[in-house]
Fold Threonylcarbamoyl-AMP synthase.
Amino acid sequence: MARTLTIDGQEDTVLAEASAVLARGLPVAIPTETVYGLAADATNAEAVRRIYAVKGRPSINPLICHMSDLAMAEGYATFDPLSRRLAEAFWPGPLTLVLPLKPDSPIARETTAGLTTVGIRVPQGFAGALIAAYGKPLAAPSANPSGRISPTAASHVEAGLGERLELILDGGPATVGVESTIVKVEADGTLRLLRPGGLSADEIERVAGVTLTRGKAGAAAIEAPGMLPSHYAPRAAVRMNATEVRPGEAFLKFGADSVPGEDKAAAIFALSASGNAAEAASHLFELMKRADEAGVTSIAVSPIPSTGLGEAINDRLVRAAAPRPGPVTDEGTS
């Protein structure tokens, strides 16, 4: 069973212990502002393979490389002017840029799933300090069994992966609550949104000065994490845009207005009583877990406008509600 170390008040000790585990090629669960990540040395192929094994994650699904700052990132990938402008505006923060790998980049092929591009992010807070102390980038998908709800607290990691890990770092609840937004600048200058997340499209477009294009560009390969059709899934079925609650369902409520059948819900969880998308995003995965733990077979979710962070919320809900390729278990789906 994993040891859990609380970061608050003992950061230097935790940095040293986590760095030692990483140096042995083992993954460590770390807090970030988005969700908790399962981190390992991105330049060590065996360490990265352990991430896939611990999560039960398909090896075709690339991992994001987390860097300590822009200067570190420039050592591994090539930045075009627009990507650089976005990095300077939003790093550290919940933005991932998909960039061409430098020809001599030591990032392991397993990290990028064999692609010639790599997703790079500079996280806020302790995660950035750990990368700086370790001195190498960390590959870090969410610290949960593959396909399941992402963790926003150390206790979520312990429940899902505690028996498979040596060390979990507890930095308190994640403040953003959904994964990073992933964008890519194409060769023709098009700015493409691969995954909505904790940074809204409006903010990115304001800095970029161009409109984001949604979706794939005809690519056969998965270019970034979070693009599999079924993902972020609870055991219960998810029913989006629910304007009524069916008897025995759990209900994730957005806004204050009552809906028909609410009195017959097995449990009600408020994503945001005021209808604030940022607040709802920070609560989404935690409340999905609590709804699932209520033992229901269906979770109804209020309609949520796809503006601002509502786009990221609805992306996660669509994937949580998607048909699943197999039974959802603690080992995840593949």
